[in-house]
Each structure stands twice: as C-alpha cells, then as structure tokens.
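To: structure subgroup
Subject: Chain for Friday's discussion

All,

I'm putting the inputs and outputs inline so they're searchable in the archive.
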Amino acid sequence: MIGALTTLLSCQLAGEVLARALHLPVPGPVIGMALLFTGLLLRGREAPPALHATADALLGNLGLLFVPAGVGVMLYLPVLARDWAPLSLSVLAGTLAAIAFTGRLAQRLLRGR
C-alpha cells in the first residue's frame, strides 16, 4: 500500500511540477492522473493489485472530500441566494454541455471498434 500511495503521490507531484513549470491552465492533479494513465497504458498489463486496492480504498472514502465544498456552500449562502439565477443557468448549461460531449465521444469511440 505504501508503494501504491507513493506512485499516486509521485504522479500528482510530477503533474504539479509540470503545471507550474509550463504555466499550464490545467490543475496539477489532472496532469498527474494523465501521467499515471499513460504509464499504465505503456506498461501493457493490468494495474498492480496494490495500486488497484489503494485506489479502491481512496474511492471508498471519496465522500469525505465533499465536506469542504459543503462548508463553502454554507459560508457563501448569501452570495448564492443573491446570484441564484446566473449560477443555476451556468450549472445547467455546463451539465448539458458535458452530457452532450460525453455522448458524442462515446459514439465516436464505439464507432471505431
């Protein structure tokens, strides 16, 4: 488990370093996740069992990561009450755009088979 956590955190660190060094508009953890994905693809086999188990354990506790977001919502409740219309519109538009993009991408990927 220590080795798997080291791998995950090393990929995140590499992503942070790349994002800051190259002034990329993408968060470091996203770049790190792409690096991990590329490394696993290049490996050519299934992910190591320890990495799989560690990722499952982290995903099992993913709900804890929503606590700060909930606190932020409560902290900015007056702002949310004042600007509810544009916020709602942007959330709706973003959700619809993400669904449309995901659907198109799935169609394109499935058509390629």
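Points worth raising on Friday:
The longest helix spans residues 84-111.
The chain has two domains: 1-60, 71-113.

D.
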